[in-house]
Amino acid sequence: MQVIPALDLLGDDAVRLEQGDFNRVLFRQPIEEFMGRLIATQPDLIHVVDLEGARDGALRPAVIERCSRAARGVPLQVSGGLRSLESAREALKAGAARVVVGTQIWKDEANLDSFVKALGDQLVVALDVKDSRLAVRGWVAYAPLTLDQALERCQHADVARLHVTAVERDGTMQGPDLELYEKVCASGIPVVAAGGVRNDDDLADLARVGCEAAVMGVGYLGRLGLSLD
Predict the structure, then answer these.
(1) Which residues pair with 155 in a beta bridge?
(2) Residue 128 designated active-site
(3) What are the sequence ranges of the domains in the chain?
(4) CB 84 within 8 A of CB 59
(5) Catalytic one of 8, 177, 202, 205
(6) Does domain 2-223 have CATH number 3.20.20.70?
(7) CA 142, CA 23: separation in Å to the nearest integer?
(8) Catalytic pick from 50, 128, 170, 205?
(9) Which of 88, 157, 197, 213 is most exposed, with minimal Cβ within 10 Å?
(10) Three-class DSSP category at 19
């Protein structure tokens, strides 16, 4: 089980939101300071989410470059504002090792095949589940298809990896939605889980249902005996 710490961006700061709500900021710190705390734990990968980019639909390459410099060689998995193949390629050029794309992929049925063909295993397809529906645009709207339909499309397109977020658990420290992850892992596609992951027991449960990795936000530093402040 790979453990991936998360750095969420709002403006020029690292933040933590509760349930993805922009009005419920739990924590805020300059990017370089928070990134320094993460890389000190020697992670294999860091998950960077540009919340502002996701909300506004605009990639911010300068911010990705800033994160890449601060990461000092630790690979980044980047999401937020990747609404075209061009922006995905631009994120990779700015320093991302792989990109997470959701909104644009689900706008049109042909988009998934195009992204997979162009990006291969550098693409991670986002399935953000909120109210049992597929959330898009920074979790403020819904895609016109069910989770089952999305999974079927991913199987047919030979998607390399899924990033699955239980939105209602995000930032809550309530534990992962194991029923959701068990269902998604049954697709046979490698799954990175996110949302509510607190500790080693949660990681063991996610490994048991078949996840290959988990993103930890609030719980990551706590798991190592460090404070969020």
Answers:
(1) none
(2) yes
(3) 2-223
(4) no
(5) 8
(6) yes
(7) 20
(8) 128
(9) 157
(10) coil
Structure tokens that stand for 166 in this block: 């239980």
pLDDT digits 0-9 by tens, 66-118: 999 999 999 999 998 898 999 999 999 999 999 999 988 998 889 999 999 99
Contacts of 116 (CB under 8 A, 6+ apart): 123, 157, 158, 159, 160
Q: DSSP for 38-72? A: HHTT--S-EEEEEHHHHHHT---HHHHHHHHHHHT
Q: Average of pLDDT values for 14-43?
A: 86
Q: How far apart are CA 150 and CA 148, in angstroms?
A: 5
User: What does the block give as tokens for 177?
Assistant: 């939605």
What is this structure's pTM? 0.88
Asked if 56 contacts 103 with a C-beta cutoff of 8 angstroms, the reply is: no
Residue whose tokens read 């992204």:
115
Distance CA 55, CA 68 (A): 21
Residues whose CB falls within 8 Å of the CB of residue 47, separated by 6 or more in sequence, listed in order: 4, 5, 6, 7, 76, 77, 79, 100, 194, 215
Here the tokens at position 30 are: 């300059």
Burial 22-52 (b: 16+ CB within 10 A, else e): eeebebebebeebbebbeeeebebbbbbbbb
Amino acid at 169: R
Please answer whether residues 88 and 101 qualify as being in contact, where contact means their C-beta atoms are separated by less than 8 angstroms: yes
